[in-house]
Automatic annotation (TrEMBL):
It comes from the Bacteria. The keyword Membrane applies. It is a multi-pass membrane protein. It is found in: Membrane. Its main location: membrane. Residues 26-465 form the Amino acid permease/ SLC12A domain. This is APC family permease.
Length: 484
């Protein structure tokens, strides 16, 4: 009899996830992770204040182009990767199992950092809203734990339940932003949409690198379409369509909405406004054009937007853990599929426990939910995310130009991946160079070094684990080939 530790883990079809997600269902799942309303309220003022001012819509356009170049190679490679391993599988396909597993641990950890950061932030936001609106004082961490429990429940259920909730939340938040765009244009006229934000002069003003970097942040999660492969209807068609729809849909939304935001304040006033009111700039825009009631509605929708983002990213981490468990990297029980809901319910429970324990430790350390937990967690997660995107571009280039020459067009296998890689590496370098300023607060330099080291450690742990499997459990290591 073979030793269970050295035998490849079973991956029978009966243990697969099941679903009937169409293009729009998957698009809503991944676009919800980008949290469009939160981007407009929280990220767009940063692009204007810390980036290149009125050129924010141009930054969004450049970020869209970078994401498209990445997607062109990523999705073309998807025809040669037939599982739900996402970056794990794609990087392994070109760069080998050890780098692939290292990227998987980095990706799962990066998304987890962002999830915990958002859970702390939403707890603080809801606490402040209840205090200001109703005079009720509830500690932020209690509300954060409630969010963890609700997200865990939805993750435990069938994926269609999460999809329906995310769809409703997404329609509401996108709808209110588009309505604001229409009201601004109707009030100020089409002529207010000046072409000045798209000029070379505007593009090179301020810090264009930071502006584009913040715009790249706005796309987090769009590539996770491939993670839902097992739960998609006709995945060979659905996944590429959903990914391209997400990239161009999100990109066009940001370009138009940031352009209207600049027009709403005026090209001469928007930068001073962003510097003076970074935290509530977009809410002031809503109040100015749509009244106090609309501002209150947007405040509530900001919370649902944050919740939708947390749920979407929770589902991404859950599926990373699920696929790693199926191939023996994590304990086998994590890949259990619920008999009724066809969901990775154990993995969802594990991720909920991770969030709970993480928040508890951070609370015991006395860290501030916004300036420390959110700022540090989101920064660490985003650095890891951008590193994984860059590794994926390199993997695409190696797979098509070193290991399998002659497959596909030059555009999909060389030009687009190189363009995406150059853009992503430039943004990653800018992020690292400006890390202390992005983190802010006291001891920013120390925190920056700690965050950088944490991201590197998540990659190193996966590489060491793969090396250990290769030497001690060769059959299990060999089974990782199936992920590619």
């Amino acid at each position: 009899m073979k030793n269970a530790a050295t035998s490849p883990p079973p991956a029978s079809p009966s243990s697969n996830l099941q679903g009937n997600l169409g293009v729009m269902s998957i698009v809503m799942m991944v676009v919800a992770a980008a949290a469009p309303l939160t981007v407009m309220a929280a990220n767009s003022p940063l692009i204007i204040a810390m980036g290149n001012g009125i050129a924010a819509p141009l930054d969004a356009a450049i970020a869209t182009l970078i994401m498209y170049l990445f997607t062109a190679g990523f999705i073309f490679m998807s025809r040669y990767v037939t599982n739900a391993g996402a970056f794990y599988a794609y990087i392994q396909k070109g760069l080998g199992r050890q780098v692939g597993l290292a990227s998987a641990t980095m990706a799962a950890a990066s998304y987890s950092f962002i999830v915990i950061a958002l859970e702390a932030y939403i707890g603080y936001t809801v606490s402040e809203l209840l205090h200001n609106a109703l005079g009720v004082s509830i500690p932020w961490w209690i509300l954060s734990i409630i969010v963890v429990m609700v997200v865990g429940f939805l993750g435990y259920r069938h994926i269609e339940m999460s999809s329906r909730f995310l769809g409703i939340a997404l329609v509401l938040e996108v709808g209110v932003v588009l309505l604001a765009d229409l009201v601004i244009v109707a009030t100020k006229g089409v002529s207010s949409l000046s072409t000045e934000p798209f000029t070379v002069h505007a593009a090179l003003s301020g810090s264009p690198g930071l502006g584009i970097m913040f715009a790249i942040y706005c796309f987090i999660g769009f590539e996770s379409t491939v993670i839902f492969r097992e739960e998609a209807r006709n995945p060979d068609v659905t996944i590429p369509r959903a990914t391209y729809t997400a990239v161009f849909g999100v990109g066009l939304f940001y370009i138009i909405s940031m352009w209207c935001e600049v027009a709403g304040f005026g090209v001469d006033s928007v930068v001073p406004m962003a510097n003076e009111h970074t935290g509530d700039m977009y809410l002031l825009l809503i109040r100015s054009y749509m009244g106090k009631v609309s501002e209150d509605i947007v405040n509530v929708l900001l919370i649902t937007s944050l919740f939708a983002c947390i749920l979407a990213l929770h589902n991404v981490v859950v599926r990373y853990q699920y696929i790693m468990s199926r191939y023996g990297v994590l304990p086998a029980g994590i890949s259990s599929v619920h008999t009724e809901h066809s969901s990775p319910h154990v993995s969802s429970f594990v991720q909920s426990c991770t969030s709970f324990v993480g928040l508890l430790i951070l609370l015991m350390l006395g860290l501030d939910p916004v300036t420390q937990i959110y700022a540090w967690g989101a920064t660490a997660g985003t650095l890891g995310y951008m590193a994984i995107l860059s590794l994926t571009c390199i993997s695409v280039l190696v797979f098509f130009n070193v290991r399998n020459k002659g497959l596909g067009s030059v555009w999909h296998t060389l030009i687009a991946p190189v363009g995406g890689l150059v853009g992503l590496l430039a943004c990653l370098w800018i992020a690292i160079a400006n890390l202390p300023a992005l983190i802010g607060g006291d001891n920013a330099g120390v925190a920056a070094w700690g965050i950088g080291a944490l991201v590197i450690v998540t990659f190193a742990c996966g590489y060491v684990l793969a090396s250990h499997m290769k030497s001690r459990y060769p059959l299990r290591f060999e089974a990782l080939r199936e992920l590619a």
